[in-house]
Predict the structure.
Amino acid sequence: MPFIRESIITTLHDDGNAHIAPMGVHETERGLMLAPFKPSATLNNLMRDGTATINYPDDVRIFAGCLTGRRDWQTFPTDVIAGVRLHDCLAHTEIKVHTREDDELRPRFYCEVVHEQTHRPFHGYNRAQFAVIELAILVSRLNMLSADKIDSEIEYLRIGLDKTAGDRELEAWSWLMEKVTEFRNKQTETLQ
Ligand SMILES: Cc1cc2nc3c(=O)[nH]c(=O)nc-3n(C[C@H](O)[C@H](O)[C@H](O)COP(=O)(O)O)c2cc1C
């Protein structure tokens, strides 16, 4: 199994605007690998441009925000590639695609690192941050998972959240829970 870093990927649209999306970065023998599902803006931008930035933020609201319509996070120009990085990240890695493997569902982009920079120190792991990232993944798969599975995962994740969250984690959690409720209300409406 590859080691996967849950990160925020920034790419550029063809009009030069930034696109921000949470994505897993796989560490492989052929370099860092991104595997966006079709369809996706990140996929289109990688196909066209062949570059991206991997951002490592400790503010998990960025993960939750991207899945709940809050994508307006401040960016800065990158150092080597013609792209952007998040303003608020501990570190970032600029990458260039060297090999693309097409796939019906999930193409793979193998990348080389062209630049890497640290901006702030890492201050340790936090269970509430983990809980928010896990809930964000559940929210990105709401229509693939059963209601029971989602409820039991939320119940477990809430333990770490309740014990260790700060304001940012609680806010991120509330955005994601609103999305779960919204999804369920829509499901009930279509059944009526
Ligand atoms: C922690 C985390 C990891 C994710 N990893 C992936 C991934 O590896 N591939 C993918 O297609 N979507 C992934 N997602 C879901 C995408 O972020 C989401 O579907 C997003 O909207 C991608 O589409 P876009 O590029 O059009 O914005 C992940 C979501 C989270 C919260």
Observations:
- Residues 58 and 124 are 10 Å apart (CA to CA).
- The first helix runs from residue 41 to 49.
